[in-house]
Write a structure and sequence with these properties.
The structure holds 2 protein chains of 2 kinds. Chain A is globular and about 80 Å long. In chain A, the strands form 7 sheets. Chain A has a 4-stranded antiparallel beta sheet. Helix content of chain A is about 45%, strand content about 15%. Chain B has one domain (about 15-240): 2-Layer Sandwich (Nucleotidyltransferase, domain 5), CATH 3.30.420.10. Chain B contains 10 helices and 6 strands, in the order H-H-E-E-E-E-H-H-H-E-H-E-H-H-H-H. In chain B, strands 1, 2, 3, 4, 5 and 6 form a 6-stranded mixed beta sheet that branches. The radius of gyration of chain B is 18 Å and the shape is globular. The N and C termini of chain B lie close together (about 10 Å). The chains are: A alpha+beta, B alpha/beta. At the A-B interface, helix 1, strand 1 and strand 8 of A face strand 3 and helix 10 of B. Strand 1 (about 35-40) of chain A pairs antiparallel with strand 3 (about 80-85) of chain B, so a sheet runs across the interface.
């Protein structure tokens, strides 16, 4: 294969069965390809006709028919057809017609036979995958699992549009209009090679340029976003989705090492998967009052149920729900700032607990706080921030995020303080730890800045990461607190047998399962000096030290995933039945499969707690207050 | 396509392309060119579906054949029913003139690529093995034909003549009002671009991330297939398409 054909090879390498094929073999396949264009409506293969090609769809869509003329399947980019006939006697068994203008790569029969004999993955795919695919529903919609198996490059539809970062506001806006793009990449061309420096989006133009009535001669570098969040070209679409949800960005430059391959927008993913949670997120940003937000908040449980039914994993669901919660919060803050005017001093709005960990589910309290700039003067500024906190908190309550019963909300003056006070709080918690106080402040060790001057939250994360690992006593007390909640081990078909011999009908999957797990993972992560917040990310960070064995880490990951997903399914079921979702499960409601795996998972939690007790010297009675 | 003033076999022109080839075969002194003309030119009435075609793209250091040089050649033989990737060819060649900084940025060809590259003369046999008996297809006819003509005059002392199919000229013909007037622009009418990538988009053809002479040649071949199926027919005689 000519090296210049890499574009063609890379396309095929995204799709099965070519994605698993050795590179040299795929090069040979590409070298034998013939390209052919079919206009929409053209018959590509007639029933009974001789055919000695395997067809690969580069772009467009094709309909496959039965002999009777009945529509059998509809396939698109990256799909193959014609293999049935090649496997039988080289006559067409399923006629094919171009549904859209279609470009196909034809692979000669000799190559097909060679692959069939020599590449097991290919043989399995054309034999088995094909049948199940043909059996699959007619107007098959792209399922959300496709988000987990398709690469982001599938969403790139055009070359990136860029301009030097020296252009003026008006010129940038003109380029975006002419090219019909919602984001413009800004390149630093001062060095030898031009380098991606920033991005400006149509949203930025509206919120930063138009509302502030900036002159059209303003250099674009004054208002562009820097410190760009980008995604690598080999990433999956769901990773892009998580990234957008987590960082509240609507455009991601796709990078191949230092080179920009293209930009994907939130709307590209929504188009690809119109049922996705991102659709809800993009809708949130279109609402202009609390009433509108409240109205779409009713779609949140449906989005949750849909993801569960599409077999998304707990990390995806947790991140999606947290992203939705963050978007509600951020939009409320924007609306609040519109109503009350711009903030008198910089501030950062923080999410705490499960939202900060990207592990939010559908039933959730609001846990939040505000870090204010150190120039804060209560008499001058606090009226504003109290009003803003109240606006957001009430708005969130309207949208189904209940007030926190423990008063961990920015409306509480204790949690609406300047940065230096926050630093004092954390220093005190870590350096002068008291078990009782730590029990209540546990939630602050999962924190994430979501609006305003995010840097403030990062400073707190850095402080925690630096101090926590050095305070043995802090870790000991945190560990002891984490041991208060234990998993149920006597676990029978119709009841739970507690250690004290009591029988219970139900158990709480959060308090007895996911919470003890995320607690103990947090402590190991703090001991490692990690700044990660998500439990799976924390496990990764722990894995980079020698604190836990590889096997133990894997077990913890599996246990967390399994308990979380059972909890998630339990809630989805309740929503579908029109009940209020909760965390209380009766063993008899679980399938035998779930019961036996839950038992294993709880065993993992229990062993991990034993290790925690030993590792941080957390036996009650020693080192006690 | 209605008659085009630039068409060289239009009524009034003295000779058809096959006739010109026969004549040029006598006049040519270089064996390479003689062989090229002797391989002949297809009959002007031959349906496009039967014509052996060659998508051809040069990357050059600039737009003027007398000032600039060829940097790379990409080509792929094809017919209306298939583009044969297995027979494609890409060759970087050493330009006669210094490499302009701007063209480096476009093609991604660097000075070290060029230093190790042969002169066009060294790969001429290979180039003609593809050209003989095929009608070249290009996107924008003012590059490949004039650059090859000048390069041959320089190296063989005689130029070359042949018909080409120009996919850009076809797009230009399909969009005669592609540049809206000032008034139309005020009403929001956008210009229609006939550049290769933009033209391809109108036919649902995919976007290619990389740019080199070979990918552009393939892109041009795909575009011609799409144009024929959308606006002409496989039976359209070649004389309606070549220039």
């Amino acid at each position: 294969m000519q090296a210049e054909l890499i574009d063609i090879r890379n396309h095929m390498a995204q799709f099965p069965p070519f994605d698993e094929m050795p590179e040299e073999l795929l090069d040979q396949v590409v070298g034998g390809v013939e390209v052919q264009y079919f206009r929409a409506g053209t018959q590509i293969l007639e029933f009974g006709q001789d055919n000695s090609w395997l067809y690969y769809i580069r772009s467009g869509a094709v309909e496959i028919y039965r002999r009777s003329g009945e529509l059998y399947n509809r396939i698109g980019e990256g799909d193959i057809f014609g293999q049935f006939g090649l496997l039988m006697n080289k006559t067409v068994r399923f006629p094919a017609r171009a549904l859209e203008d279609t470009l196909v790569y034809r692979i000669p029969e000799a190559t097909f036979q060679y692959l069939f004999e020599n590449d097991d993955g290919f043989a399995d795919f054309v034999e088995t995958e094909d049948r199940s695919r043909l059996r699959s529903a007619l107007s098959r919609r792209e399922k959300s699992n496709d988000l987990m198996t398709s690469k982001v490059t599938r969403l790139i539809s055009r070359a990136p549009v860029s301009a030097p970062c020296t252009v003026r506001l008006q010129e940038a806006a003109r380029i975006m209009t002419d090219q019909g793009v919602s984001a413009l990449l800004l390149m630093d061309e001062s060095g030898e090679n031009s380098r991606l420096k920033g991005i400006i989006t149509d949203r930025d133009l509206r919120t930063r340029a138009v509302t502030e009535a900036l002159p059209s001669e303003t250099p674009i570098s004054d208002i562009m976003s820097e410190g760009l969040i980008t995604i690598r070209a080999s990433a999956y679409i769901f990773e892009a989705m998580l990234m957008m949800l987590h960082n509240n960005v609507h455009h991601l430059p796709v990078m191949d090492k230092d080179e920009v391959r293209g930009v994907i927008a939130l709307s590209d993913i929504v188009k690809y998967e119109s049922q996705s949670s991102l659709y809800l997120v993009s809708n949130i940003y279109h609402q202009n009052d609390v009433k509108g937000l409240k109205k779409i908040s009713r779609d949140v449980p449906d989005t949750f149920v849909r993801m569960v039914n599409e077999d998304a994993n707990s990390h995806m669901i947790g991140s999606a729900m947290a992203g939705i919660g963050r978007s509600f919060t951020q939009r409320l803050l924007e609306l609040g700032e519109e109503k009350l005017g711009p903030p008198p001093i910089p501030y950062c709005f923080m999410a705490l607990g499960s939202m900060a960990r990207d592990e939010q589910l559908v039933v959730t309290d609001q846990d939040n706080a505000m870090i204010l700039d150190d120039s804060f003067v209560p008499e001058e500024h606090d009226e504003y921030f109290l009003a803003l906190a109240k606006f957001v908190s009430d708005g969130l309550a309207e949208c189904g995020y209940k007030y926190c019963t423990g008063e961990i909300m920015a409306t509480n003056p204790k949690w609406r303080q300047p940065l230096r006070v926050w630093k004092g709080y954390f220093t005190d918690w870590i350096e002068n730890p008291r078990a009782e106080a730590l029990l209540n402040s546990n939630i602050f060790f999962d924190l994430d800045g979501i609006h305003g001057n995010i840097e403030f939250a990062e400073e707190l994360k850095a402080l925690v990461a630096e101090k926590a690992s050095h305070s043995q006593r802090f870790l000991t007390l945190m560990a002891r607190n984490a041991l208060n909640r234990t998993p149920p081990l006597g676990f029978f078909r119709t009841f739970v047998l507690e250690e004290d011999g009591q029988h219970r009908k139900t158990f709480n999957l959060k308090r007895r399962g996911t919470a003890p797990l995320s607690d103990l993972i947090r402590i190991h992560a703090l001991a490692c000096g990690s700044r990660a917040q998500n439990s799976f990310e924390r496990l990764k960070a722990i894995g980079q030290t020698k604190l836990l064995l590889e096997d133990d880490l894997g077990n913890l990951r599996d246990a967390l995933e399994f308990i979380s997903i059972v909890r998630i399914r339990h809630q989805a079921l309740a929503i579908e039945d029109g009940r209020t979702p909760d965390n209380n499960v009766r063993p008899e409601d679980l399938s035998p499969f779930e019961r036996s795996h839950l038992k294993d998972a709880f065993q993992v939690v229990s062993n991990a707690q034993k290790f925690l007790r030993f590792r941080y010297n957390a036996q009650v009675g020693r080192n006690a207050q | 396509m209605p008659s085009n003033p630039e068409r060289e076999d239009a009524p009034g022109a003295k000779l058809t392309w096959p006739e010109q080839y026969r004549e040029l075969a006598h006049q040519a002194t270089s064996p390479l060119l003689k062989a090229f003309y002797e391989a002949g030119c297809v009959d002007p009435d031959m349906p496009i579906s039967d014509v052996p075609l060659l998508a051809l793209d040069f990357e050059t250091t600039g737009l003027d054949p007398n000032e600039h040089s060829i940097v790379s050649v990409g080509l792929v033989p094809f017919t209306l029913s298939g583009i044969q990737l297995g027979r494609c060819w890409h060759q970087v060649v050493r330009p006669q003139l210094p490499l302009h900084q701007t063209s480096i940025e476009v093609h991604g060809i660097t000075h070290s690529d060029i230093d190790n590259a042969p002169d066009l003369a060294e790969v001429m046999d290979k180039l003609f093995s593809y050209l003989n008996g095929r009608i070249p297809v290009v996107h924008y006819r003012d590059i490949e034909r004039p650059f090859l003509n000048v390069a041959l005059q320089w190296r063989l002392g005689e130029g070359i003549r042949f018909p080409v199919i120009d996919t850009m000229a076809i797009e230009a013909h399909l969009h005669p009002d592609r540049r809206p007037g000032r008034w139309q622009r005020l009403l929001g009418k956008k210009p229609v671009s006939i550049r290769l990538a933009d033209s391809r988009q109108r036919y649902g053809l995919p976007h290619y991330a990389s740019h080199n002479a070979l990918i552009d040649a393939i892109a041009t071949a795909e575009l011609l297939q799409a144009q024929i199926y959308h606006h002409f027919s496989p039976n359209t005689p070649i004389k309606d398409l070549w220039l």
